[in-house]
Amino acid sequence: MKFWRSDRGALALLLGTCALMLLLGLGSRELWGAETRWANIALQMLQSGDYFDPYLKGGPYYDKPLPSYWLITGTAWLIGGLNHWSLRLSSVIAAWFSVWLVYLIGEQLFRKGTGLIAGWMLATTFYFIFWARVATADILTVCGVLAAVWWYWRGPDDTRFSRYLGFFLLLSLTSLFKGLIGFILPGLVLLPHVVQDGRWKRHLNLRMCAALVIAGAFYMTPFMLSHIYGAPTYGESGLGLVLRENVVRFFQPFDNIGPIYTYLIYLPVYTLPWAPCWLLGLWLALRNWRSVEPNTRWLVWGLGLLMLFFTASGSRRSYYVLPLVPFAQLLGAWWITRRMAERNATGRFSRGLKIGFGLATALLVLVLGVVYPWTNGGGGVIAFAETVKLEASKRAPLDKWKMVMVEVDNKVPMYLQTGGAPFYYVQESQDFPRNGNTEALLAWLDRTSGQHFDPQRTLVIAQFRNGDALPLNYLSADHQIITTTPTNGERMFHGREDQSVAYIPGIQ
């Protein structure tokens, strides 16, 4: 009992509860949104053995730096295959560490208990936990930014080479997950403290420059490996991606264009249910600016600079605001602990916070761990793939089949892994036979691919919209047809618009 009342016990309870919210039901939801691209690219890496040239549905697609995909393929290798767990586990672990890092930063910079409250606030923030259970690089970026800020605050005046090297390596690693914001965001957050009292002059030395050069070489390594070992005919450049995604998109956005007030709306939304706390903390800090603690002024400045940076970018999406969420919750936790100290009402506030965190935890566990898995059950792509594999295995072992994907939904390939030959992708723009018979399609495949497709061991998957005629319907003359069925959620709310159909040789 004494352990749970200690600081270590309180931290263990926080991290254990956070792990429960992150892991419960993680493997029960279908691929969603951008996850389909990550799964498709990682699957093609695993099938082809080419880890330096990312492909999406058979075409070059260098959308993110290679380490983003290597995390997934490495996890798939460790746990024995690409699935929901290997796809999402890196985001889950990053979110778990983010909660811990927020705790450490809060306890180090503010009064006792601030870090614990901030950790609970972040762990029970709906959109943070939601995106932590999605396979994207955004939560990896949040974790990297927090790690760099934590590293800096362990010794802000320390000028040893090892301190600089650790800091810049963290920035390089974070930038290798999503882009150069891994360098920019920590720099913006820490800038107010670095320039204060001329601190930057102390850090402008040869040791820092040497560490920066080494970290720069570390950052360039995956791009160099891709250039040296990648296919000469690949046609896309990783460094070209960096320029396009981080510079061109900032000044001349070509997609994801939102209004200038986007983040004024989404930062409060993405910090629910605790948004009122940081808004009140911001108001209190600005009202008493000269008398508040220097670290609080730094936090407000850092949060403001992040908001200014994201607003200045022409490319805006709601979840881009995620890196601001931990710092907003830190500000909210500062306001709570200050109010508790001023009113000398620690016991009453403590009980209220425990009730609030308990209710938020229960709600998240219910929604993410119970409701989401149920809505994804009873049909959908997962059930479709299991049925296809079951029927195909009645004719031959799964590793003997060749899969042909005709403009298929990105999420389908991951569920249809057979251990056989890499999938062959056919794009809608190609001149494959829309009408005819099985022999014509297989002859076209042989001619186009340079491979041989056995009529009895070729499984064709295609996509269609609900209500439309089945694509390649001429295959139904000598193939068994399997289509997707709606999930529990789709039966309750609406039907599935995009559906998949499988053609298995031999009618049963």
From TrEMBL:
The keyword Cell membrane applies. It is found in: Cell membrane. Residues 63-220 form the Glycosyltransferase RgtA/B/C/D-like domain. Keywords: Cell membrane, Glycosyltransferase, Membrane, Transferase, Transmembrane, Transmembrane helix. GO terms for biological process: lipopolysaccharide biosynthetic process; response to iron(III) ion. GO terms for molecular function: pentosyltransferase activity. The chain crosses the membrane at residues 85-105, 126-153, 165-192, 204-225, 263-286, 298-314, 320-337, 357-375. It is a multi-pass membrane protein. One of its GO terms (cellular component) is plasma membrane. It comes from the Bacteria. Its main location: membrane. The keyword Ribosomal protein does not apply. It holds the Pfam family PMT_2. This is Dolichyl-phosphate-mannose--protein mannosyltransferase.
